[in-house]
Design a protein that fits this description.
The protein has 280 residues and is an alpha+beta fold. 35% of the residues lie in helices and 31% in strands. The protein has two domains: 114 residues, Aminopeptidase (3-Layer(aba) Sandwich), CATH 3.40.630; 145 residues, Gcn5-related N-acetyltransferase (GNAT) (Aminopeptidase, 3-Layer(aba) Sandwich), CATH 3.40.630.30.
Length: 280
């Protein structure tokens, strides 16, 4: 069993794609990052890819866009995560991935370096194939434009301060995410308006071969409880499925029962748990 480091997203998908696509929802973050980098290599200045193979078969994979966490796939062999840990020369700040593979990699990595793994965020990975009917909220959706950029930055920053830890790439890259999505290079934004005023935001990006990821979703606190986010995510999900996608994916904070209930109401199904784990 051996690990190889790859420099190109296309080469990574060629090698690891069949293993990742065997559980596309579970691996949507790895597939989405790699897919984005095939279409827009400049999206991340630094990127690294690893595959672990055994007799020509890929049994493990990981992606990293420094300075952020390593993202690991579910291995096909129990030894693959240890081989991967031996091959990575970076001093990584942590690992993100579905459970139990993220926990197992953290155990191996930290055990060899006398570090302590700390779970900083517990998440659910959800997938949608078929919509359910949801109540219509007042108002309606519209695509965000360049004129909305100040509002998008304000709300993305508010989402980061409310929902994400310091150092989370979703928080650090708010401006870059807005720029790329408004340019159409990495998804986009849909707004819900009521009375001519924006009241909720939902973004999408990270395309996989058959699906795409939704998030973040944000409604300012004074406007919550009116059904705006439910209606907006339902409309965005319908739009993406109608465009030819077989799935929509999203990550939820398991500590937030309200958002988890919203997505289930639309038809999202929880496929696995995931975690962000810091190394100290």
């Amino acid at each position: 069993m051996k690990a190889e480091t790859l420099d190109e997203a296309a080469a990574f998908l060629d090698r690891a794609g069949p293993m990742l696509l065997a559980d596309e929802a579970r691996h949507n973050l790895l597939l989405g990052i790699a897919g984005t980098l095939v279409a827009a290599p400049e999206r991340y200045e630094d990127k690294r890819f690893w595959v672990v193979s055994d007799g020509g078969e890929v049994v493990g994979a990981a992606v990293r866009t420094p300075p952020y966490n390593l993202i690991v796939a579910k291995p096909r062999d129990s030894e693959a995560l240890g081989v991967l840990a031996d091959a990575i020369e970076d001093e990584i700040p942590g690992v993100t991935g579905a459970r139990p593979e993220a926990d197992e990699f953290a155990r191996v990595w930290c055990g060899r370096r006398s570090l302590t793994p700390t779970v900083t965020r517990r998440m659910g990975v959800f997938a949608l194939e078929r919509m359910r009917a949801v109540p219509q909220a007042p108002g309606g959706p519209r695509p965000a434009t360049r004129e909305d950029e100040p509002l998008l930055l304000e709300w993305m920053d508010a989402f980061g301060r409310e929902a994400l830890e310091e150092g989370d790439p979703g928080r650090v890259e708010a401006r870059a995410a807005v720029e790329h999505r408004l340019d159409g290079a990495d998804g986009g934004f849909l707004l819900w308006e009521d009375g001519g005023e924006p009241v909720s935001l939902a973004a999408w990006g990270g395309p996989t071969p058959n699906g795409i990821r939704i998030g973040p979703v944000y409604t300012p606190p004074p406007l919550r409880g009116r059904g705006y986010a439910t209606a907006l995510v339902a409309e965005l999900s319908r739009m993406l499925l109608d465009s030819g996608r077989s799935f929509c994916f999203l990550f939820t904070d398991l500590a937030n029962p309200t958002s988890n209930a919203i997505y289930r109401r639309i038809g999202y199904v929880r496929v696995c748990d995931a975690a962000m784990i810091a190394f100290d």
